[in-house]
Design goal:
Low-confidence stretches: none
CATH topology: Hypothetical protein pa4535
Structural class: alpha+beta
Strand order of the largest sheet: 1-2-3-4-5-6-7-8
Shape: globular
Radius of gyration: 16 Å
Helix content: 25-40%
Oligomer: single chain
Largest sheet: 8 strands, mixed
CATH architecture: 3-Layer(aba) Sandwich
Number of domains: 1
Length: about 190
């Protein structure tokens, strides 16, 4: 990442997922209790709500990564670039930025054949994301085996996969980084 890109990323507005995600969760729960709302709106599945759905996914990822690594990660919206969001932290008194490309294994009613391996293959076929983290949210009900994934070498800065593991979406699993390991972590959101 060159100095101009670091300078651009340092000027973005960053949010702490420890504070933002609980507030977003309150909104999600309030919407889920409303009557007579189409599922497409309840699940943020309209074109107009696509960015909100992506940001919800990004805050879940940042929250889970923070739970896994202990790093105080912040998140910024950066859809104007080749990626969707940016994670930031400070280590050794230096800022570190990690662009994130968000993908989703969509629900069965939208695409019954979608799966994690297809997303990795399709994303890598388009271009190399060596400086970008690939994050994939699983929204389908299927058995995910992290050891069965085939990850192209040097394709991404890391691949993280996450999915709700409780019906109320309060407990989540996070697997990654698929470069050094494929460990899974359970985290809870308030």
């Amino acid at each position: 990442m060159d100095d101009a890109e670091i300078n651009r990323l340092s000027k973005l507005q960053y949010y702490d997922p420890l504070y933002a995600l609980p507030e977003l969760r309150k909104v999600q729960l309030a919407i889920s209790e409303l009557q007579n709302i189409p599922n497409s709106i309840r699940n943020l599945r309209t074109r107009k709500l696509k960015r909100e759905r992506e940001l919800w996914m990004a805050f879940l990822l940042a929250y889970g990564l923070r739970a896994r690594t202990g790093l105080p990660l912040l998140l910024a919206d950066d859809e104007e670039s080749d990626h969707d969001v940016v994670l930031a932290t400070v280590a050794n008194d230096l800022p570190h930025f990690l662009p994130v490309q968000l993908k989703e294994v969509v629900p069965e009613d939208l695409n019954p054949t979608a799966n994690v391996q297809n997303i990795i293959d399709d994303t890598f076929a388009k271009r190399s994301y060596q400086d970008t983290l690939l994050a994939i949210k699983i929204t389908q009900n299927y058995s995910f085996d992290p050891n069965g994934l085939v990850v192209p070498p040097f394709s991404f800065a890391g691949i993280w996969i996450f999915a709700a593991v409780s019906p109320d979406q309060s407990r989540w699993a996070l697997w990654g980084d698929f470069i050094d390991d494929r460990l899974g972590t359970i985290f809870e959101i308030p």
